[in-house]
Amino acid sequence: MSTKTMRVLVLVCSTRPGALGPVVGRWLTEVLEPRAGELDVELVPVTLGELALPFLDEEEEPASGVYAHEHTRRWSALVDGADGFVVVTPEYNYGMPAPFKNALDYLTREWAWKPMGFVSYGHTSAGTRSVQHAKQVVTTLRLVPLGATVALRIRDAVEDGQVRPNPALAASAVGLLDELVRVSHALRPLRERARPGLPAGPLPGSYLRPLTPDDAAEVLILQRCCWVEEAVANESLDIPALHESLEQVREWLGTWRTTGLWRDGRLLGMVRSRRDGTDWHVGRLAVVPDLRGRGLGRELLRIGEAGAGAACRRFVLHTGARSEQNIRLYRGEGYRIVPLPEDDGTVSLVKDVNSAPVPVG
């Protein structure tokens, strides 16, 4: 449920001078644009002929991710930033065009766990044998080929060098985009887990990553789930986490250092922190209700504290005055309650940086 715009490359594969591919690609983009706007999808046309990739000339294996040439690095960045692909391909001798196979072979990790749909064109078979050939290759790269396809038989679909208006073909193209978006959302957890450098979380299969404004929807839901008990315990609904709008959550995600605990695309917990003078403020510590009691809150608290730099002298956090479980957790981690100038139903707890947790009976 990310609020990030989905990016889909429309990849025109033929490089033959005068090829029909660019015409089909333009028709496809024009047909899809209204639906793409409704689905919050950015269509990015890419023509392999203009990309001008030479035949694979990297010395290292693509799986290494070590690229010596600038053209490979550009191609890698383009593919890596995409959430899915629609391939516009002819059929050459029962197979896909060599430049398409070459473009696939350049990369490995960047393709993984993304959907790929096909729009083919040709004569007798309307290019469908090219699609079947391509599917054998793309699955090896952990691309997920869609069941929905669009096939144009040239003599029926093209007139005077342009694709004829055809409501049935247009509807098929829109159906392909719809399926691609659904599959891309479903595959998002696998794509994210495959990112290099993400540390493992405390639960099997979980991982940690920084939260960004694109995660505002998940954070909003987590807050609404987790702060209801706080409201009940303190007999007050005057809790910011229960009332913030999506835009307000998006705004503070851009200014706080926030870490999320994820598993299978579900946000299980989070903590945010930032510096204020010599204080390191920690807050919005949350764990989904069904996973409490497993030490996740303690782990997230320590993650929030870990960002404090050498200039910080103490950790500071706040909670409801009647939130006994929270207070017990924080005191167990070495925090002490300090008086606030006004009684607003909350308490402030502080801990000196570098002080060890102390057990509380």
Please state roughly what percent of the residues sit in beta strands, choosing from under 5%, 5-15%, 15-25%, 25-35%, 35-45% or over 45%: 15-25%
Number of strands: 14
Overall form: elongated
Rounded to an integer in angstroms, the radius of gyration calculated over CA atoms is: 26 Å
Question: Biggest β-sheet, characterized?
Answer: 7 strands, mixed
Q: Return the string of H and E elements.
A: EHEHHEHEHEHEEHEHHHEEEHEHEE
Portion of residues in helices? 25-40%
**Contiguous runs where pLDDT drops below 50 for at least 5 residues:** none
Report on the structure:
- The chain is α/β, with parallel strands linked by helices.
- Helix content is 37%, strand content 25%.
- It has helices at 21-39, 48-51, 70-80, 98-105, 128-138, 154-157, 167-193, 216-234, 240-243, 246-253, 296-305, 324-332; strands at 6-12, 41-47, 84-89, 115-122, 144-153, 158-159, 162-163, 207-210, 257-263, 266-276, 279-287, 314-320, 336-338, 346-352.
- The strands form 3 sheets. Strands 8-9-10-11-12-14-13 form a 7-stranded mixed sheet, with helices on both faces.
- Strand 13 (336-338) and strand 14 (346-352) form a beta hairpin.
- The protein starts with 5 loop residues before the first strand and ends in a 9-residue tail after the last strand.
